[in-house]
Amino acid sequence: MPRVLGVHIPDEKKIEIALTYVYGIGKTLSKEILKQANIPLDKKAKDLTQDELNKIKEVVETNYLVEGDLKRDVMMNVKRLKDINTWRGQRHSKKLPVRGQTTRVNSRTVRGNKRTTVGSGRKAAPSPK
């Protein structure tokens, strides 16, 4: 398995798709990187030479934020929002949806999968003796 920026990328996939296993690289950015490194898009990851891997690594390190640096940058942006007490920062702090979604019914993914159901609120009638 070739390693790019500390991430194992799958052997059997085309390098265009395999690069998307790196956090911060999507399909469009992957195409851009391969174009800059002069590597064909349809080449398999296992067929890459060490020189081609070094070209990819060099292009990514000089031009893009990926993996740990990108995660740290995103984390610092969220922390800044919390510190200046913006609306979005408050939503992040309360672990609620940040981008305007309604929370009355569907916000399970942010709040966690809370499936607490309550009946109609009425107690059952006492059984006759």
Keyword list:
129 residues, mainly alpha, Helicase, Ruva Protein, domain 3, two-stranded antiparallel sheet, elongated, single chain
Short description:
The chain has 129 residues and is mainly alpha-helical.
Molecular structure report:
The chain has 2 domains: 3-64, Helicase, Ruva Protein, domain 3; 68-100, no CATH class. It is 43% helix and 3% strand. It contains 6 helices and 2 strands. It has helices at residues 15-18, 27-36, 50-63, 67-83, 87-93, 108-111; strands spanning 3-4, 7-8. Strand 1 and strand 2 form a beta hairpin. The protein is elongated and about 85 Å long. The termini are far apart. The mean pLDDT is 86.
Instruction: Just give the CATH class of the largest domain.
Output: Mainly Alpha
- Strands, count: 2
Strand order of the largest sheet: 1-2
Q: What structural category characterises the helix and strand content?
A: mainly alpha
CATH architecture of the largest domain: Orthogonal Bundle
The average pLDDT score comes to: 86
Report how far the terminal alpha carbons are from each other.
74 Å
Instruction: Outline the biggest β-sheet.
Output: 2 strands, antiparallel
The tally of domains stands at 2
Task: Give the low-confidence spans.
Answer: none
Nearest-angstrom radius of gyration?
24 Å
Q: Would you give the CATH topology of the largest domain?
A: Helicase, Ruva Protein, domain 3
N to C succession of SSEs: EEHHHHHH
Give the overall shape, derived from the CA principal axes. Answer: elongated
| Portion in strands | under 5%
